Amino acid sequence: MAESLRPQVSLASLTTFGVGGPAGFFLDAGSEEQVEAALDWAYKRGVPVTLIGGGSNVLVSDRGVDGIVIRVRVRGMTERALPGEPGKVVCEVGAGEELDRVVVHTIESGYGGLECLSGIPGYMGATPIQNVGAYGQEIADTVVGVRVMERDSQHIETFDNPACHFSYRNSVFKGEKRDRYVILTVSLALTPGGAPRVHYPEIARELSLRGGDPQSLADVRAVVLAVRRAKSMVIDTADPNHRSAGSFFVNPVVTVEQADDIEQRARAAAFEAQPMPRYAVGDRVKLSAAWLIERAGFGKGTTDGAVGISTRHALAIVNRGGATAAEILDFARRVRDAVLERFGVALAAEPVLIGFSQEEAASLR
Predict the structure, then answer these.
(1) Reported pTM
(2) How many whole angstroms separate alpha carbon 48 and alpha carbon 178?
(3) Within 10 Å of residue 298's Cβ, how many Cβ atoms?
(4) How far apart are the first and last CA of the chain?
(5) Which domains can be identified in the chain, with CATH numbers?
C-alpha cells in the first residue's frame, strides 16, 4: 500500500478546470482491494480522505488538499438478466469507467436508457451522487443498485434505487450520507431494443432538422453531442471554453409562488419580451439558472481577467488560462450575489469544492 502512495501530487492536471494545489498523498485505486487498503491506512492514522473521479465536476483550492486523495479507477462492465423483468438487462459498471464510454457501449448493444447522457464527462461513480442528467434523462431512471464501501469500517453494502433518495441533481450520497461511502459499482436496468427517450424540445427539434430517426439510439446520440458541442459542453482542448466544470450552478427548484415573484421581478426589469423559462417538477417549479445569470448582468463572454462566463453557455464559468481557484470562486460568488440581489433566488454550486474551508465553501452551497 505505502509504495503505491505518491506524495505532493498536483491535482490541477487531474481536473477539467486546470487549477488546484497538491494532494498530501495521492493514490490511483484500480481495484476494490486498493480502495479498502487506502481507507484502512487513512483510518488507522487519522488521515482525512478525499475522493475524486474524472475531475470534471470539482474545483480544488490553490493550497491543495491535506491527507490522502483517492482517485477511484475500479473498471469493468458486466451484464445479467433482471429477475422478473424479461425485457430488461442489468449492466453493472465499475465506478472508474468513463460515463460516455458506458453510453457508447449501451448504444452499440442496442440498449435504451442512457442515450441523452452522451458527451457528459466524468466517471460512472459520480453519477448517482449528483443524479447526473441531461435532456430529459437522469441516471436515477435506470439505477437498480449502487454498491458502496463504508469509509471507516470498509464494510460493503448495496443501495437499491429507493434507498438512494434521488431528486433533482441530488441523492443520499450528496445529502445525509455525504462523505460516508466510496461508490464501487453502479447497476443500471436498460432496455434491449428500447426506443430513445426524446422528450426534450431542443433535441426533438434538432433531430427533425437533421433528418434523424427518432427511433435510432445512434441518431439521438449524434444530435445530443452536436447540441452539447455548440454549447462548449463537450471537452475539446481546441475550444477556448474547455477549461470549466460544465454547468457551475444547479437550476433552482422553487415554489410556484417564488417563481411568480421572480417572474414579476423580471418583468419589472423590462425582460418581459422574453418570458421566463419555467418547468413543472411535481408541485414545484424548476427555473433556468442560465436565464437568471444573463439577466443579472453576466452574459455569455463576460470576462474578468483570466476568469469569465463561457461565450456559448451562461452556466459555465471558464478558466481562460492562468486563473487560480480563488479567482474562480470569487467570480462565482459575484455571479451568485448578482442573481440573489436581482431575483431573490440563491443559486447553489454544482461542482464539489475540495480543499476549501467551510467558510469559503458555505457561500456557494
Answers:
(1) 0.93
(2) 14
(3) 22
(4) 35
(5) 2-72 (3.30.43.10), 77-230 (3.30.465.10), 244-362 (3.90.78.10)
Three cell numbers, residue 194:
428500447
Strand, helix or coil for residue 287: strand
**H helix runs in 46-171, sequence order:** 99-108, 127-130
Q: Cα–Cα distance between 302 and 44 in angstroms, integer?
A: 48
Q: Smallest Cα–Cα separation from 47: which of 149, 176, 152?
A: 152
Tell which residue, 79, 67, 116, 73, has the closest CA to residue 98. Answer: 73
Q: Return the SS3 of 121.
A: coil
How far, rounded to the nearest angstrom, does the alpha carbon of residue 174 sit from its chain's CA centroid? 12
CA proximity to 235, closest of 225, 220, 250: 225
What Å distances lie between residue 116 and 37, 189, 191, 363, CA to CA? 37, 15, 14, 32
Task: Please give the helix or strand (H or E) that residue 278 lies within, else none.
Answer: strand 278-281
CB contact at 8 A, 277 and 287: yes
> Which residues are catalytic, by number?
169, 247, 350
Separation between Cα atoms, residue 362 and residue 365, nearest integer Å: 5
Q: How far apart are CA 365 and CA 296, in angstroms?
A: 19
Q: Is the distance from CB of 125 to CB of 183 less than 8 angstroms? A: yes
pLDDT in tens, the chain (365 residues): 656 899 999 999 999 999 999 999 999 999 999 999 999 999 999 999 999 999 999 999 999 999 999 999 999 999 999 888 889 999 999 999 999 999 999 999 999 999 999 999 999 999 999 999 999 999 999 999 999 999 999 999 999 999 999 999 999 999 999 999 999 999 999 999 999 989 889 999 999 999 999 999 999 999 999 999 999 999 999 999 999 999 999 999 999 999 999 998 888 876 556 688 999 988 999 999 999 999 999 999 999 999 999 999 999 999 999 999 999 999 999 999 999 999 999 999 999 999 999 888 887 87
Give the number of other CB atoms < 10 A from CB of residue 85. 12
d(CA 257, CA 297): 24
The C-alpha cell 425485457 sits at 87
C-alpha cell at 105: 457501449
Q: From residue 251, how far is each of 169, 188, 293, 338 by CA, in Å? A: 9, 25, 11, 15
- Laid out side by side, the sheet with 49-52 consists of 6-10, 22-29, 65-72, 49-52
